[in-house]
Amino acid sequence: MDSLSHVAPRRKSGTRAFYEIEALRNSWSTRGLERQINSLLYERLALSKDKKGLMRLATKGQAIQRSVDVFKDPVVMEFLGLPESPRLVESGLERALINNLQAFLLGLGKGFAFVSRQERITLDGNHFYIDLVFYHTILKCFVLIDLKIGKLTHQDLGQLQLYVNYYDRERRSHGDNPTLGLILCTDKNDAVVHYTLGPDQAKKIFASRYTLHLPTEVELQAELRRELRLLKREFDDQS
Questions:
Q1: Are residues 8 and 106 in the same domain?
Q2: Which residues pair with 76 in a beta bridge?
Q3: What is the DSSP string of 100-160?
Q4: 163: pLDDT confidence band, cut at 50, 70 and 90?
Q5: 41, 89, 224, 238: least buried by Cβ within 10 Å?
Q6: How far apart are alpha carbons 46 and 56 in whole angstroms?
């Protein structure tokens, strides 16, 4: 793993082992490996792990067993080459993602298979369009992705709930697990997500921020510290 020793010679052994396992398992190119290291993939995944889960992550790579294991926050999409601009519209973001689908799938993580874009569902004559539909080959379920420019609102979550409920009732086949929904947005309020969804829907619907540039390690470390404070606050509230 010469490329790994060149990219991150000072990383801890557990982190190094993770990247070695994932690079071999996913056949990452040197460039792909560098991108995953520079975006702190290991650290972002580690946020959702307990001590035992973190040890498994370091020794066995990413194991997807629950819906919460699938989604990253933030999702780094610098490969699109789009500027941070208030003029960016959702259709433009969607078009750029489709044009860079291979890189987008790598950014999402393992197990995602593309199904469709702008899939129309009709309810009593009203048409709704799901931005992106994937199937997750490990969890055996559909994943619906809604793209949002700007801050997440409770109306956005309600709309995705509609899509997920429809898919569960009308599109799920025998052997499929419950549908998952993901909103990709530029900003979110975790309290809005928490109180809009409730404990049951929170297992099926998720919100992740996306960024159009690759953050520096300092920026990502600051983001990780922010997330850790939020997790600690949630833990304190539950205890």
A1: no
A2: 211
A3: THHHHHHHH-TTEEEEEEEEEEEETTEEEEEEEEEEETTTTEEEEEEE-SSB--HHHHHHH
A4: very high
A5: 238
A6: 10
Q: Which domain holds residue 58?
A: 1-63
pLDDT recorded at residue 9? 41
Same domain, 109 and 176: yes
Report DSSP state, residue 34.
H
Q: Which residues of 113-138 are buried (b: 16+ CB within 10 A; e: fewer)?
A: eeeebebeeeeeeeeeebbbbbebee
Q: How far apart are alpha carbons 148 and 50 in whole angstroms?
A: 31
pLDDT of 1-33, one tens digit each?
A: 444 544 444 445 567 887 888 788 777 788 778
How far is Cα 119 from Cα 127, in angstroms, rounded to an integer? 10
pTM for this prediction? 0.61
CA distance 142 to 58: 28
Token look-up 């975006």 returns 39
State the Cα torsion 212-216-222-228 to the nearest 10°: 70
Tally of domains in the chain = 2
